[in-house]
Amino acid sequence: MTFDFPSPEATAALARRFPPGFAWGVATSSFQIEGAAHEDGKGESIWDRFCRVPGAIADGSSGDVACDHVHRLEEDLDLIAALGVDTYRFSVSWPRVQPTGSGAWNARGVDFYRRLVDGLRARGIAPMMTLNHWDLPQALQEQGGWAARETVHRFVDYAIGLQRAVGGHCATITTHNEPWVMAVLGHEMGIFAPGLKSRAVALQVAHHLLLSHGLALQALRAESAKAELGIVLNMSHAVPATDSEADRARAVLDDGTALRWYCDPLFRGRYPDDVLAHVGADAPVVQHGDMAAIATPMDYLGINNYSRHVASAGAPWVAGSSGLPLTEMGWEIHAPSLTALLLRVHRDYAPKKMLVTENGGAFPDAVGDDGRVLDVDRTRYLFDHIGAVADAAEQGAPMAGYMVWSLMDNFEWASGYAKRFGIVHVDYATQKRTPKASADWYRGFLGQVRRGGD
Ligand code: IFM
Question: How far is the CA of 19 from the centre of ligand 1 (A)?
Answer without folding.
Answer: 28
